[in-house]
Amino acid sequence: MTEFWLISAPGEKTCQQTWDKMMAATTRANNLSTNHKFNIPDLKVGTLDVLVGLSDELAKLDSFVESVVKKVAQYMADVLEDSRDKVQENLLANGVDLITYITRFQWDMAKYPIKQSLKNISEIISKQITQIDNDLKTRASAYNNLKGNLQNLERKNAGSLLTRSLGDIVKKDDFVLDSEYLITVLVVVPKTSYSDWEKTYETLAEMVVPRSSHLLCEDNDSGLYGVTLFRKAIDDFKHKARENKFTVRDFQYNEEEMKADKEEMTRLSTDKKKQFGPLVRWLKVNFSEAFIAWIHIKALRVFVESVLRYGLPVNFQAMLLQPNKKTMKKLREVLNDLYKHLDSSAAAIIDSAMDIPGLNLSQQEYYPYVYYKIDCNLLDFKA
């Protein structure tokens, strides 16, 4: 399971007792979850007004930072293309996998000094993540343009003879060049119509050079023929060819253009390779930064909400539960029994909801204890 429940409950005589009680209810008797203490340092409380305002701001910031974390992770998967199985090993926080980082969470004093007010810490995070979001847009746009242009060129050089670029198929010897009167045209003929072509091409228009048809290449369905005729007969030839289901490709042999296309493709391919390494490094570093910031916001939210709910002096135990998938409903019931005395109105809502299947309690789940979900499944792989 990559889902965690970050909860808090007020300290009994000591915070250790709160922890022991929760452990006894969720693991010793019934193994409902794997639990860890979640260490939140002594942050500056500030005034009640500030805490109430900050509670709303942190909820918005939490959503924003989570969206940026997911964007960076998803873009990493897009950039790694064929190596998507390697994505997870690149999504690290502080050099360790995400579950290890969360379960061993330590507040980063250097990045987010606790001598600062809660509001200042949230503003530091907000600025940092906005910068990452803006940088991602810029870098992704540049890389996607490059990738798109390269794909367009590659697409032109792939596909069927009816649509693909012919520059890398034909040779100079296949054409009558620099003639005032004669021109070589390229015609795509379905394989099933080869004999029809051989019988009729010389009569599709006047002034087709006899026995000038030659097969240049084939794909699964068709063959590409070159045929020489007088320039003034070309419109008539195209029209008659179309009637016979032969397709005349609009192509002029131009060595300069073909060379330029090849060079452009080489340049784009080289540029993409050059940008790939630095881009993946940037994504790894900034994914880590954004994820760390996100878990710090969760810690801030637990702190603020616990003070607002349980009052002063600050006395609560933050706990991280990793539920077992099959016992999530049971775990929720056990926690509600354990903590329903904290908030009778929340307990009443939950009891009534349990009687009405399918009732959604609202967007934000509310329980008698402080609760936030952390979902580490950040990738939305498109099939």
TrEMBL record:
<keyword id="KW-0406">Ion transport</keyword>
<dbReference type="InterPro" id="IPR036132">
    <property type="entry name" value="Vac_ATP_synth_c_sf"/>
</dbReference>
<comment type="function">
    <text>Subunit of the V1 complex of vacuolar(H+)-ATPase (V-ATPase), a multisubunit enzyme composed of a peripheral complex (V1) that hydrolyzes ATP and a membrane integral complex (V0) that translocates protons. V-ATPase is responsible for acidifying and maintaining the pH of intracellular compartments and in some cell types, is targeted to the plasma membrane, where it is responsible for acidifying the extracellular environment. Subunit C is necessary for the assembly of the catalytic sector of the enzyme and is likely to have a specific function in its catalytic activity.</text>
</comment>
<keyword id="KW-0813">Transport</keyword>
<comment type="subunit">
    <text>V-ATPase is a heteromultimeric enzyme made up of two complexes: the ATP-hydrolytic V1 complex and the proton translocation V0 complex. The V1 complex consists of three catalytic AB heterodimers that form a heterohexamer, three peripheral stalks each consisting of EG heterodimers, one central rotor including subunits D and F, and the regulatory subunits C and H. The proton translocation complex V0 consists of the proton transport subunit a, a ring of proteolipid subunits c9c'', rotary subunit d, subunits e and f, and two accessory subunits.</text>
</comment>
<keyword id="KW-0375">Hydrogen ion transport</keyword>
<keyword id="KW-0007">Acetylation</keyword>
<dbReference type="GO" id="GO:0005765">
    <property type="term" value="C:lysosomal membrane"/>
</dbReference>
<dbReference type="InterPro" id="IPR004907">
    <property type="entry name" value="ATPase_V1-cplx_csu"/>
</dbReference>
<dbReference type="Pfam" id="PF03223">
    <property type="entry name" value="V-ATPase_C"/>
</dbReference>
<dbReference type="GO" id="GO:0000221">
    <property type="term" value="C:vacuolar proton-transporting V-type ATPase, V1 domain"/>
</dbReference>
<protein>
    <recommendedName>
        <fullName>V-type proton ATPase subunit C</fullName>
    </recommendedName>
</protein>
<dbReference type="GO" id="GO:0046961">
    <property type="term" value="F:proton-transporting ATPase activity, rotational mechanism"/>
</dbReference>
<comment type="similarity">
    <text>Belongs to the V-ATPase C subunit family.</text>
</comment>
